[in-house]
Prior knowledge:
By secondary structure, this protein is mainly β. The chain has helices spanning 62-70, 95-103, 189-203; strands spanning 7-12, 40-49, 76-84, 106-115, 125-133, 137-147, 158-170, 173-181, 209-214, 232-233, 252-256, 261-267, 278-285.
Amino acid sequence: MTRTHRSLARRVLTAAALTATLTLGAAWPGAAAPRQAAPSVPLRVATYNIHAGAGEDGVFDLGRTARAIRDLHADVIGLQEVDVHWGARSGYADEARDLARRLHMRVFFAPIYDLPAEPPRTRRRQFGVAVLSRYPVVSAENHEITRLSTQSTDPVPQPAPGFAEVAVRARGAVVHVYTTHLDYRADPSVRRAQVDDMLAVLDAERGPKVLVGDFNAEPGAPELARLWGPLADAAPDGGGTYPAAAPVRRIDVVALSPGIAVTGVREAVTTASDHRPVVADLTVRRPRS
């Protein structure tokens, strides 16, 4: 097993059910019956770097974050910069569970960092990405990709967790949704390695796949070039997402595997974080039996 397929957490919640499709009657006796096209399933996905619940005003307010997410009316949302008992800045809250509770959604949290508690506290400090879903979760996994730690004084690129994969069952279609947060540094070499690692993870699954996240680079950046082919940018003419008040860069992206259609995409105008969320309306075909 390659290092990109090792995981720190795996949750298998239920088996995916495939829905049988109807066939038309044969044109003549003994002829093969032509089949109807597989029905399409609407799916609204979003990506949002929540800045640990802090708005552009620097105020941490998870209620405001929840309202911004609720206004997206998304079925599945990939979140970045999520604190779980991380520190005083976010009141040591479990932001992943808190948001799921407020929004009545399922949640999978994939830590990038998992550190000992700050005395006298007892819960470990975690920071990473999360996926919220209105649909049942079939499976979830926290994959490793190359990272350059922000918690070390002399970091070196090495495998580390925090690349979340969640398979959701949406009206008979099982869709794999991946959430990522790529390296922020000016040197593109780590992001280039992360792209290779993510593609290896995605290649291990069949069926419709959606990759969302904060790429910390615009889609046309050379280090992201290998993504485009296996995946397509859902909003090639989309607007900026960062900084939220007056965005000048589009670094928050929704990317799709072949066969997924885009019926609409937009950047939501909000300053509940320093990023704007991106929400995309998609159609995914249910599999034939």
